[in-house]
């Protein structure tokens, strides 16, 4: 049972790390001379890189704020779920399930899914200065989808897990 708990802790910490990386890093949409995320756009020329924040004059600013909020909320919920798991590990009686932790993880999973789905459907509208076919989804976008799968798997593991000797 100790090996299973260690695996779950490592899996959960990995989910948290993936959420932090995907939310913070500037590689949701990349091209030869630019990289874009949910916070700013960076353009590289021969000598330097110029970054500018996404401004409220952007026609899709509310959708971008929704993505920002859901990714931040997913990260916070995943961290809170980990602390909930640690508390429940020592507080629950044997044979009880980690339902609270599973619920928090499924909420985190849903937040990631909502944010990344919105970005998938509207990414070409967020940065009108870029041609729609000028780039491709970056590794932060892929990591966000992997984090979705990890948090979903985590929530299922918590629902199945029973505290045993």
Automatic annotation (TrEMBL):
<feature type="transmembrane region" description="Helical">
    <location>
        <begin position="98"/>
        <end position="119"/>
    </location>
</feature>
<comment type="subunit">
    <text>Interacts with PTK2; regulates PTK2 activation and localization. Interacts with ITGB3; regulates the levels of the heterodimer ITGA5-ITGB3 integrin surface expression. Interacts with P2RX7 (via C-terminus). Interacts with ITGB1; the interaction may be direct or indirect and ITGB1 has a heterodimer form.</text>
</comment>
<dbReference type="Pfam" id="PF00822">
    <property type="entry name" value="PMP22_Claudin"/>
</dbReference>
<dbReference type="GO" id="GO:0005634">
    <property type="term" value="C:nucleus"/>
</dbReference>
<comment type="similarity">
    <text>Belongs to the PMP-22/EMP/MP20 family.</text>
</comment>
<keyword id="KW-0963">Cytoplasm</keyword>
<dbReference type="GO" id="GO:0045121">
    <property type="term" value="C:membrane raft"/>
</dbReference>
<keyword id="KW-0812">Transmembrane</keyword>
<dbReference type="GO" id="GO:0000139">
    <property type="term" value="C:Golgi membrane"/>
</dbReference>
<keyword id="KW-0333">Golgi apparatus</keyword>
<feature type="transmembrane region" description="Helical">
    <location>
        <begin position="67"/>
        <end position="86"/>
    </location>
</feature>
<dbReference type="InterPro" id="IPR004031">
    <property type="entry name" value="PMP22/EMP/MP20/Claudin"/>
</dbReference>
<dbReference type="GO" id="GO:0048471">
    <property type="term" value="C:perinuclear region of cytoplasm"/>
</dbReference>
<protein>
    <recommendedName>
        <fullName>Epithelial membrane protein 2</fullName>
    </recommendedName>
</protein>
<keyword id="KW-0539">Nucleus</keyword>
<dbReference type="GO" id="GO:0016324">
    <property type="term" value="C:apical plasma membrane"/>
</dbReference>
<dbReference type="InterPro" id="IPR050579">
    <property type="entry name" value="PMP-22/EMP/MP20-like"/>
</dbReference>
<keyword id="KW-1003">Cell membrane</keyword>
<feature type="transmembrane region" description="Helical">
    <location>
        <begin position="139"/>
        <end position="161"/>
    </location>
</feature>
<dbReference type="GO" id="GO:0005886">
    <property type="term" value="C:plasma membrane"/>
</dbReference>
<keyword id="KW-0472">Membrane</keyword>
<dbReference type="InterPro" id="IPR004032">
    <property type="entry name" value="PMP22_EMP_MP20"/>
</dbReference>
<dbReference type="InterPro" id="IPR003933">
    <property type="entry name" value="EMP-2"/>
</dbReference>
<keyword id="KW-1133">Transmembrane helix</keyword>
